[in-house]
Amino acid sequence: MATSDAVVLDSAGLHRLVDELRGRGYRVVGPTLRDNAIVLAELDGADDLPYGWGVDVAPGTYTLRRREDRAAFGHSSGPQSWKQFLHPPRKKLWSCGPDGVDSAAEPEPRYAFLGVRGCDLAAMGVLDRVLSGGEHPDGSYVGRRRQVFVVAVNCTEPGRLCFCASMATGPACRGGYDLVLTERADGAELDYVVEAGSPAGAEVLAAVPQRAADLAEVSAAADAVVAAGTRMGRRMPDGDLRQLLIESRESPHWADVANRCLTCGNCTMVCPTCFCTSTADVTDLAGEHAERWMEWASCFELDFTFVHEGPVRRSGPSRYRHWLTHKLSSWHDQFGTSGCVGCGRCIAWCPTGIDITEEMATFARLADDND
Ligand code: SF4
Ligand code: SF4
Questions:
Q1: Measured in angstroms, how far is the CA atom of residue 346 from the centroid of ligand 2?
Q2: How far from 182 is each of 8, 69, 142, CA to CA, in Å?
Q3: Which of 84, 117, 279, 339 is deepest in the core (most CB within 10 A)?
């Protein structure tokens, strides 16, 4: 039978892969079940994966459901992304006291990410351009990112809010990984078609029990991923979104969205590419110790644009317009790419179910009506 460079791992092989990575000093982070959601957390072993759990998502809704098979990666995006491990929500920058300043610099953790989908791989690429490109890279991000070992997963199970196919970021992983898996679940049976994407990936893979994949298996796995691309629950409208938003600047539709938007900032917190931060200083009551912390910030906060005499973007419509226009339009001018990878998180975790694809479809329709 014809073979390829791909190999097949069975369930025991996946366990060995996690153990091998842990044995090499990586902190392995992957999906696990906690608080009625599939979250990303450090794994003690492959037993911690959410076998047999899927999710149902809709605007403003996220619900776990039991699957008919034992798939470990048969769920769409959860409330978190890999961003929180590369660009933590809160980080001490320095502290000072009577003895001087302590830079708070610590060795950056060495992570292995298990289960990164195409959309989230693309999001890591976006963060790379934002936080490690340019003249002033973020040293902490760079230190974490360069050590990461990425085990990606080709998606065969898109959610109702996914639209990575229309953003050209998935469902297949398009590079930037050390290993890529395609999970095949048949009842209680699981196995994984695996390919290496880097020399480090090939070295780790060689240490794990495996068998060669035949070409029919590789082709069937690829077909399952292509089929997933036809089952996306959402799609972004076609056309030049950058220009559409430039031309929609004075649209009355911004006020309509703002009537539904609570300016809570959830969409920015769950988005795998939103990167803004602010700093906060903390002192003790005796005045002998002070700390400076970096914290995630949101462009929906009133204080986000505070300059002398107050915030620049005071109204809800102006803040929503800024967020959407930055994501899909001015991000291209700043970073040469879209700021949206089509993961659908902002739709699921918006308390009022505002849907970025629907709002863009409305702007496109209004623009057509005006032509
Ligand atoms: S804007 Fe929404 S769909 Fe796009 S990457 Fe961010 S969270 Fe995902
Ligand atoms: S769009 Fe939704 S999640 Fe984002 S700030 Fe408005 S209400 Fe919150």
A1: 8
A2: 10, 15, 29
A3: 117
Burial pattern 190-217, b for ≥16 Cβ within 10 A else e, equals: bbbbbbbbeeebeebbeebebeebeeeb
CA 262 to ligand 2: nearest atom: 7
95: left (phi over 0), alpha (psi -120 to 50) or beta: beta
DSSP SS3 for 281: strand
Instruction: Choose the residue to mutate in 62, 340, 347 for probing ligand 1, maximizing ligand atoms within 8 Å of C-beta.
Output: 340
SS3 132: helix
- d(CA 26, ligand 2 centre) in Å: 36
Residue 13 C-alpha to ligand 2 middle, in angstroms?
Answer: 42
Using the structure block, give the residue that is written with the tokens 């209004």. Answer: 366
Show the CA angle centred on residue 57, arms to residues 355 and 192, nearest 5°: 120
- Residue 59 sits at the vertex; the CA angle it makes with 159 and 324, to the nearest 5 degrees, is 100
